[in-house]
Amino acid sequence: MASAIFTTFLCRQQRFLTLTRSPVATQLWTRLASTSVQQQTANKPVNLQQLKNLKVDYQDDIAVVQFNQENSKVNTLSKGMMDEFVPLFEQLQNDDKVKGIVVMSAKPGSFIAGADINMLESAKNRDELFKISRNGQDIMHQIEQSRKPIVAAIAGSCLGGGFEVALACHYRIAMNDKRTGFGVPEIKLGLLPGAGGTQRLVQKLSLPDALDLVLTGKEVKTKKAKSLGLVDAVVEPIGPGLQAAEEKNIDYLRSVAVQKAKELTFKKHVKPQPGLLENIKSKIMSTSYVQNYIFEQAKKKVMSQTQGLYPAPLKILDVIKQTVESGSKVGYNAEAEGFADLGATSESKALISLFHGRTECKKNKYGKPEREVKNIAVIGAGLMGAGVAHVSIDKGFNVILRDQTTKALSRGYSQITKGYQGYVKRKRLTNAEYDRILANLECQTTFDNLEKCDMVIEAVFEDLGLKQKVLAEIEQRIPEHCVFASNTSALPIHKIAANSKRPEKVIGMHYFSPVDKMELLEIVRAKQTSDDTVRSAVSVGLKQGKVVIVVGDGPGFYTTRLLMFAGAEVFRLLQEGASPKDIDKATKKFGFPVGSATLFDEVGIDVAAHIARDMQAVFGDRLADKSMPALFQDLVSNNLHGRKTGQGLYIYQAGVKGGDREVNPKFTELIKNYAAEAKEQITTETIQWRTGLRFLNEAARCLEEKIITSPTDGDIGAVFGLGFPPMKGGPFRFMDTYGVSKIVDLMNSYRSKYGERFAPTQLLVDMAKEDKKFYS
Amino acid sequence: MAFRCSFQKGLIHLRQSNTSSIRLVTTKTTASASSSTQKQSQPSGQQQQQQQRTSSPTTGTSSSNKTKSLKGLGRDVVFIDGVRTPFLTSFTSYKDLMGYHLARHALLGLIKRTKIDKSTPEYCVMGTVIQEVKTSNVAREALLSAGFPENIPGHTVTMACISSNVALASAANNIATGLNEAVIAGGVEYMSDVPIRYPRSMRKLMLSLNRAKSTPQRLGLITKMLSLKNFTPEAPAIAEFSTGEIMGQSADRLAAAFNVTRREQDEYAQRSHKLAQEAAEKGHLDDIVPMHIPGAEDVVSRDNGVRVSTLEQMSKLKPAFVKPHGTVTAASSSFITDGASASLITSVEKAKELGLKPKAYLRRYIFTSQDPKDQLLLGPTYATAKLLEQAGLTLNDIDVFEFHEAFAGQILANLKALNSDYFAQKYLNRSSKVGEIPLEKFNVWGGSLSLGHPFGATGVRLVTTAANRLIKENKRLALVAACAAGGQGHAMLVERYQ
């Protein structure tokens, strides 16, 4: 499978770094701070009738404050929200009739999803960022210090600043539904939770638990939050009754919270005493020896996962360490300082840019298709085919998985069930949900019911002839409106459609392996593909949970093309005498999750050989001279197919991992026949720049040739499909940050040494002249 | 066909004797229907057809031709009488018996009460929920142990708390279709002993041990068994399989969804116990057949779960399922019960031949199902609404209501659902609410909350009580309804025999 490019290794790092799956997730609380507390107290009393973002009412002596941001599906700690909240809070504090306060959301599915990133982006300098954090800390402090009990009744996402608000309250009641989750995803934007989040989490949790939450930014569900001690009580959602379930649930949560608030007005909440074991555990944890050990281990893990390229996790460790060692006064200050430092880093800016890009690629920019796709057939039950079925069966599609043999089907079926059983094990799904989801899958060797399909996705072996044959066979059986999508990493879609009866219905859908983990879907639109076909493919992709980019039908589309251009330089370096280990080390140091030499073993050298031959024929010396396809062919004929055969650039043996793998002596022998002269000493830097510049230049060229339609698509494709270092934001963001003219200069200097393949593309030259940026 | 005519005659008769008007089902044969009702009748006719595919009611009132089957669908079915053992809280006087003992006693009691010969019934169907694996077909074991002739077949059915309703329905079908003339329908539940299993890993090893051929093989398997995990027993799951939720939790959530307060639940539970006690004192509960237990001092002749408490006592109880803010407590839930019931169902002709006076006709019935998570216990609402619509009746036409009381909160939620326009429009596919059930007609001799609820036996108790109440109160039409695990429901119309 040509698309089997990306290993679980890559995924693992991606999971650590990429943005959370929830669409509303990563919004920071930063808006909150723009209103200073002092400023507000001077204001006139709030007119409760004119609140736009809050609702207040009273039940006996309890005030219920509901966040209800106007014109929005979710609540954020926006300026408007805080401008109302701060004085209202003040007023409730001074109102003798109010004995307790409940804070909750009037919107189903969103307590407070964080705050507005745009606000943070508009902070002009480090001082402003520092102030933002300080003010946030102050507001949370006021909530915490309130003499009247404050109960947070939480349903829906409670993230970032929202979580910090909840943590500052005296008692937390949470709805146990799928939408409710707690987390501090700031790290995913290269930041830290700066409104006391690091401080309160360390207070409430054991050190390893706190570090885990803050360093991964993961979201925990209600049950888990309860067992961690982050929430005090759990409310199960109720069904419809005399009203619809959603309204009913808000009422129910409210009544439980009001009852609790009343109770707290005369009885202070006492945390249940920890048991003996817990006591011993926390005693041990609080010794400085153990704490130091934990910090050391955490740092080691961070370094091994990030190569030290991300400042945020290191800064967070530092802040928490200071807190633990010197107390919370130092801690709060360190948090605000850390927040300001991080907010000013290019890494944070790059990650925020990626967040925006990802959000954009999760929206359907192309509109609704005429006919909603309901029934999908996947042809070929290999790794990719089964993967495509995997991501479809739980999204409301009826899926037929078809292969020629029952054995192949059984393998595919087991792949899917294994994946879903994993979700059950991790409690992401119940057994009943598992059963129901698997009921949407039909495995068959026949073409039965293809006449009912709205879309066929073929994932057979990467061979043009075979794909054409499959298309011809399928087209006889599918209805007129049915879309035929080909999962290919490089075969031209117009060629696959060459003999099609309805070429306008043929499109490319390039999934990345493993499909259930890799978020990117590259949709390839050929000239003859109709708009409606694109709409169908995009809407299916988005439903499958993918980040979607639509690219043109050029050789290697977008991602594979970049991969091959950088890869050509990798092989050139190998020909010049560099070791695969040097290449891997240098590229990983740049931030790629998988070394660029290892990557070809993962992709499969045989697959790469095909693509190299085809692309060299099109691009000629601009890609590489003729020795490259020849070298690939030679490797293949010597049975060095990469990881799948145990032999490639490296030797693969069970139990030998990563850096311990040995370079394959057969490869070292073979490459000698293709040796090329090294024009200068090969250093880490030359490896990084030579491969990097080829990558960047080709990305720009794809934009120039309209293979991709925007720098955003280009960045998202490179980061989510190829593992381009996320903290650099993608090739286009990187060029902007580094300076296009500097890139052009570098290219020209390499061009003088290495020839025309380093010639900067016209777009870059023009942009350098006009001092333009990709992102304005 | 014959059945339909007689049913309609019955309804016409009802109309004459009862001032409240009864809307007849608008069938093709009902020519008097006005044009406006004809319009309305069309969709309801379709629904009936759909209904028949899923639940096959015994009556032939539907306009669908499918019911005019050659097998003779549509004979009148009569309920001769029903009996039961006293319903006892589990782990009390029945604790050393087995389930089939109770079923056997109910069968013997039925023979004694109806004075028929043991060879008269042609078939027996019984409901049960938690099966004793040794007597998995408990109907047959009960027949044999009660000394019935060997040529009477029996089968056991299960549908959670409406298992014996299914038994009654099967028996009624057999009569209506002419398959049988006299059938026993009953049910039994015995919770004082339940199958507790080894965990799956251990069972697997034990089963392979059976098939191991050599000693080393056996020894290998035995050593694998030596893990604590393998010896941790598995009790029968009390949670709903599809949702993993315990029924009490679901009931609590249901009560919250319908704004049923703790106070209302406590009051309802108290009412149930008070009425049960009254009924017992007045001798209304004469379906009980006293039972002698080997070694016991005295005969068991009364249900032992009836306990009238003050509201104050009840209000002190902590929530049993949803803590700390729940509203369902032990006092407002039905308790774990042992007991069995049995009834004799025959054709009219057979009853005449035997010289028996039936207590009632078993009329149209229905089984429904809905969301097992959020509406787990709303079966009575769905079933009542649909059944009344199919029969062309309203709540006003019903004189006696006998509903299964799983939880006070569940009953009150169902009453509120039936009386809600929102719920009717959103979930029952009706233009307006079904209506308010007058409590003075509702479970006036107590219910499952007080009398006890042996899962597999309650259905027959409900129908027996309904029939007895019709006679005692001199009324005509009763509605029986019940909820069941799995999000299912049942309702049946019982008409007094005259």
From TrEMBL, chain A:
The record marks 164, 186 as: Important for long-chain enoyl-CoA hydratase activity. It catalyses: (3S)-hydroxyhexadecanoyl-CoA + NAD(+) = 3-oxohexadecanoyl-CoA + NADH + H(+); (3S)-hydroxydecanoyl-CoA + NAD(+) = 3-oxodecanoyl-CoA + NADH + H(+); (3S)-hydroxyhexadecanoyl-CoA = (2E)-hexadecenoyl-CoA + H2O. Gene3D superfamilies: 1.10.1040.50, 2-enoyl-CoA Hydratase, Chain A, domain 1, NAD(P)-binding Rossmann-like Domain. InterPro entries: 3-OHacyl-CoA_DH_NAD-bd, 3HC_DH_C, 6-PGluconate_DH-like_C_sf, ClpP/crotonase-like_dom_sf, Enoyl-CoA_hyd/isom_CS, Enoyl-CoA_hydra/iso, Fa_ox_alpha_mit, FA_oxidation_alpha_subunit. Keywords: Fatty acid metabolism, Lipid metabolism, Lyase, Multifunctional enzyme, NAD, Oxidoreductase. The keyword Lipid metabolism applies. One of its GO terms (molecular function) is NAD+ binding. GO terms for biological process: fatty acid beta-oxidation. The active site is at residue 522. Its EC number is 4.2.1.17. Pathway: Lipid metabolism; fatty acid beta-oxidation. Belongs to the enoyl-CoA hydratase/isomerase family. This is enoyl-CoA hydratase.
UniProtKB/TrEMBL annotation, chain B:
It is an enzyme of class 2 (transferase). It is found in: Mitochondrion. Keywords: Acyltransferase, Cytoplasm, Fatty acid metabolism, Lipid metabolism, Mitochondrion, Transferase. One of its GO terms (cellular component) is mitochondrion. It comes from the Eukaryota. Residues 356-496 form the Thiolase C-terminal domain. Its EC number is 2.3.1.16. Gene3D superfamilies: 3.40.47.10. CDD domains: thiolase (cd00751). Residues 26-67 have a biased composition (Low complexity). Pfam families: Thiolase_C, Thiolase_N. Pathway: Lipid metabolism; fatty acid beta-oxidation. Residues 26-69 are annotated as: Disordered. Residues 77-347 form the Thiolase N-terminal domain. GO terms for molecular function: acetyl-CoA C-acyltransferase activity. One of its GO terms (biological process) is fatty acid beta-oxidation. Belongs to the thiolase-like superfamily. Thiolase family. PANTHER family: ACETYL-COA C-ACYLTRANSFERASE, TRIFUNCTIONAL ENZYME SUBUNIT BETA, MITOCHONDRIAL. This is acetyl-CoA C-acyltransferase. It comes from Adineta ricciae (Rotifer).
